[in-house]
Write a structure and sequence with these properties.
Length: 88
């Protein structure tokens, strides 16, 4: 099971910014949010961010409009994904 670093995101404005993330990407890859969710849930991959020298794992959250991704570290959800730059 590869451990993959997320270094960028693409998003569309919505009421909940986490639900607005459409794609996640890294070095030489960019996947739709739905593919990342499926990969996490199947156990095929784990994903993480490194912001300010701290690792945060990407997890799947059930929101009012369906599943979305969000980072968590030390038992707390945080906004590390939203701190990443836009993917090109």
């Amino acid at each position: 099971m590869p451990d993959v670093q997320v270094t960028c995101i693409n998003k569309q404005p919505r009421n909940d910014p986490h639900e607005g993330i459409t794609h996640l990407g890294g070095i030489n890859w960019k996947w739709p949010r739905s593919q990342v969710i499926q990969s996490i849930e199947s156990g095929a991959n784990t994903f993480f961010t490194m912001v300010g020298g701290k690792r945060a794992d990407v997890g799947v959250v059930n929101g009012p409009n369906g599943k979305y991704v969000r980072t968590h570290a030390d038992g707390y959800y945080n906004d590390n994904l939203l701190a990443l730059p836009e993917c090109r």
